[in-house]
């Protein structure tokens, strides 16, 4: 996490401040940054919503939600300090007059700061409104200072490559690329950031990090939750667009990227784009060979009966949306030639568990012939959540009089170092306040990631999967995803 503290007075303008993300993630993140003394000395949060709420009503609503979602406990002293920085502001997203009023309000804050403050616009709204808001910001000159004004955009960033390119061009009419912070919250997760530290802060792993020593890489993001209240959104999205195009490909980039020359944001983002460019593009007749889709039927998750996806609110009875996706990627570059990168994600799976497995190659020759049946190849597991650790699995002698080997594990546990780690949004919001773009997606990254999934996306959108639902809620997904890795003699770990 960034050690700095933003110094210039800043007004944070949240579009969609009465929405779910704001209450669960944004306000708790700002509150925790405030308690940690990381917010700028002068700051104001302008919470924009359609409804005619009073300030008092809105602040009570935020306070109640902080009780549920804040990492740190709410004390009356901290709350008293924090709430003084919040102002509710009624705004109609599509009315120019609302933006003119907003302009006035921002100038009032600037007067109090005694200087033109920085402006951080947070678009916590549906993707359909991005162009409306961006156009109004442009027409009313709300973001007139390229050095001081920034915009944060939530995913989904477009729904395919073409729409992402259009969105990028539209934003470019109002903002320079350095002002645009496209969020992928997985990049803010402590354990995901640790991949860089682990790979490039040590001398012993990097020499082994290639096709000569690594047999395969697996990335799993399994969720226990279903679509909750987001049926309408999810029905149009599915696992490929919701998770693989962004979160899983970003993790893959962290694992596969070449060492950056420095930690400069442009350098790191260049190395990630290199990875995306090197991912082998497949043809439409190869989709079934490289990718598996699934949709959950009813089942039992964690001992509780769960409905099937098609029975959830807002979902069509004959829905063709995938709630599970597994893909095998190859990277056509010198380091990773012929190493399969298996990625999978799904909803209503057996357990919530996100992890990366680096499977090393087996020994070329076994010295321990008699006990060779016990030799397992080395494996490195990076647990992202809810476990947050790194495990190195290797062989060791079983204590005793005979020379018998057994697999053992060496564990680095994040919690043992620090029990209370910052939430991804705390890290990302602080970086945006500081103007550090490293953990945000650049326009070419987003477009390239859409290009990577394009063929699979087109095939899945245009052909109906008659096997749906093809996995039980509470399982590890459809059996075809097992076949995807077994074909190459591998197993999901
Ligand atoms: C979001 C997806 O980006 O990430 C959700 O839209 C998903 O469908 C969520 O549940 C997972 O995030 P986390 O941090 O809970 O793993």
From TrEMBL:
Keywords: Carbohydrate metabolism, Glucose metabolism, NADP, Oxidoreductase
A Pfam family that the UniProt record links to this protein: G6PD_N
Family, per entry: Belongs to the glucose-6-phosphate dehydrogenase family.
A biological process term (GO) from this entry: pentose-phosphate shunt, oxidative branch
Residues annotated as domain Glucose-6-phosphate dehydrogenase C-terminal: 196-492
Positions of the catalytic residues: 247 (proton acceptor)
Cell membrane is among the record's keywords: no
Residues involved in NADP(+) binding: 16-23, 50, 155
Task of the protein: Catalyzes the oxidation of glucose 6-phosphate to 6-phosphogluconolactone.
Protein name per its UniProtKB record: Glucose-6-phosphate 1-dehydrogenase
Stored HAMAP family: G6PD
GO cellular component, one term: cytosol
Matches recorded under Gene3D superfamilies: Dihydrodipicolinate Reductase, domain 2, NAD(P)-binding Rossmann-like Domain
Pathway where this protein functions: Carbohydrate degradation; pentose phosphate pathway; D-ribulose 5-phosphate from D-glucose 6-phosphate (oxidative stage): step 1/3
Gene: zwf
Reaction(s) this enzyme catalyzes, per UniProt: D-glucose 6-phosphate + NADP(+) = 6-phospho-D-glucono-1,5-lactone + NADPH + H(+)
Residue intervals of the Glucose-6-phosphate dehydrogenase NAD-binding domain: 13-194
Binding site for substrate: 185, 189, 223, 242, 347, 352
Organism for this UniProt entry: Chryseobacterium polytrichastri
Domain of life according to the entry: Bacteria
